[in-house]
C-alpha cells in the first residue's frame, strides 16, 4: 500500500514546518518528512487521525487540503515561494518552472489558479516578490542594488517601479517609514 501524502494550506516558512511537526507530535502521528505544504506520514492516517490533526492544525492557522484543485493551487504557491527565494539560480520563466515541476500545461494551471484564488499567478507572484523585498529592506542587510540583483530584476529602477505600484511607496520611503506594513505570506 502506498503512503498518501497530506497537503497543508498556509505553510510558507520554516517556522510553519516546525509548527506542523509539533501538531503531528501532539496527535501522536509518526511522519517521515514535513516540507512546505506537504507531510509524508509513516502510515496512512485513519479518518479519526485526519480529523484530529486538521483540528489541531487549524488552531495554528493551517489546514489539510482535501480538494484536488486546492492541492494544485497550494503546490503552485509553494513553488512560487521557492522560486522567489532561490532567484539567483532560476533561469526559467515562471510558466516553464511550474510546468516542469507539476507536469501540467501552464494555461491549465493559470486558469485553475485564477478560478480558486480570484487572482492571476503573475499578480500573486509579484505580490509575494514585493513582500520579500519589504522583508529584505526591513533587515537592512542589503542595499537596493543588491536586492535587485538577488531577485533578478533588470534594474533598480524597475524594482522601484514595481514596488511603488504595489505599496504606493518608493523603497526608500518604505525604509524610512515607522510603519513597515508587511503582509503575511499566507494572506496574499
TrEMBL record:
A single MF term (Gene Ontology): DNA-binding transcription factor activity
SUPFAM superfamilies, A to Z: Homeodomain-like
Keywords: DNA-binding, Transcription, Transcription regulation
SMART domains on file: HTH_ARAC (SM00342)
Pfam families from the UniProt entry: HTH_18 (PF12833)
Domain HTH araC/xylS-type: 78-177
This protein's name: Helix-turn-helix transcriptional regulator
Amino acid at each position: 500500500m502506498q503512503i498518501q501524502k497530506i497537503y497543508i494550506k498556509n505553510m510558507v516558512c520554516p517556522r510553519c514546518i516546525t509548527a506542523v511537526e509539533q501538531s503531528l507530535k501532539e496527535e501522536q502521528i509518526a511522519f517521515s518528512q514535513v516540507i512546505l505544504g506537504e507531510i509524508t506520514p509513516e502510515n496512512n492516517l485513519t479518518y479519526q487521525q485526519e480529523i484530529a490533526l486538521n483540528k489541531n492544525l487549524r488552531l495554528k492557522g493551517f489546514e489539510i487540503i482535501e480538494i484536488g484543485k486546492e492541492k494544485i493551487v497550494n503546490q503552485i504557491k509553494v513553488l512560487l515561494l521557492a522560486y522567489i527565494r532561490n532567484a539567483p539560480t532560476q533561469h526559467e520563466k515562471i510558466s516553464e518552472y511550474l510546468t516542469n515541476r507539476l507536469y501540467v500545461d501552464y494555461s491549465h494551471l493559470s486558469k485553475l489558479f485564477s478560478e480558486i484564488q480570484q487572482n492571476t499567478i503573475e499578480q500573486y507572484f509579484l505580490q509575494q516578490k514585493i513582500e520579500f523585498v519589504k522583508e529584505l529592506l526591513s533587515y537592512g542587510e542589503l542595499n537596493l542594488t543588491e536586492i535587485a540583483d538577488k531577485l533578478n530584476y533588470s534594474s533598480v529602477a524597475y524594482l522601484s517601479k514595481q514596488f511603488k505600484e504595489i505599496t504606493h511607496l518608493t523603497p526608500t520611503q518604505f525604509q524610512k517609514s515607522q510603519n513597515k506594513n508587511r503582509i503575511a505570506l499566507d494572506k496574499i
